[in-house]
């Protein structure tokens, strides 16, 4: 049984990963920013009775005090992690001409600085060997309009991974990432897309080799591979799961 912490796991890819690890018999801890959403996710996960009870902890990774509290809670529990899944993030599109400093800094704080500081802090609570998996995006390698801040934030963490692997090698910690393609989650509605726009996106995705928009369950196998022993030889690896969108 592995101890696995997944950030931002109240919905979407993180929730789907938590459910999958739970069903495999692992001990899963999830984080969320909003107590009500966290409670809903825990209720859903823990009423399935298909694995160990999932623990939920409040943490906004953009707030350093929350990261310290999370670490303190894990320390008090005597928890040592086998895997840390850095999944939490935001997508708030803005055209370049309209991009504000506040929006840019907020995206970087949530998608880059927060996960980096979280990884730094929780590296002290990880086993040897241990795995960190960053949920990145195809935007690192493919340009989309109105995604400058989002693309930069994901690319920044990927840029740090090489040095992280070098410095964490003595602790037996490996750092790799998954780049999901366009995936049906709450992120579309949160970014401001209405139902018609989402339907149009789904129609566009029907033209990809996969023939459909991806779902969180499509991304989870890559996360599991990088989180568990099957990836012991992987360092700074990037696994793209995009249904052929980038071909």
From TrEMBL:
Pfam families named among the record's database cross-references: adh_short
EC top class named in words: oxidoreductase
SUPFAM superfamilies: NAD(P)-binding Rossmann-fold domains
Residue ranges of every copy of the Ketoreductase domain listed in the record: 2-185
Domain of life, source organism: Bacteria
Keywords linked to the UniProt accession: Oxidoreductase
GO molecular function: oxidoreductase activity
Keyword Phosphoprotein tagged: no
Known EC number: 1.-.-.-
Oxidoreductase among keywords: yes
Classification via PANTHER family: EG:BACR7A4.14 PROTEIN-RELATED (PTHR43975:SF2), ZGC:101858 (PTHR43975)
Entry's family note: Belongs to the short-chain dehydrogenases/reductases (SDR) family.
Protein's name in the database: SDR family oxidoreductase
Organism: Oceanobacter antarcticus
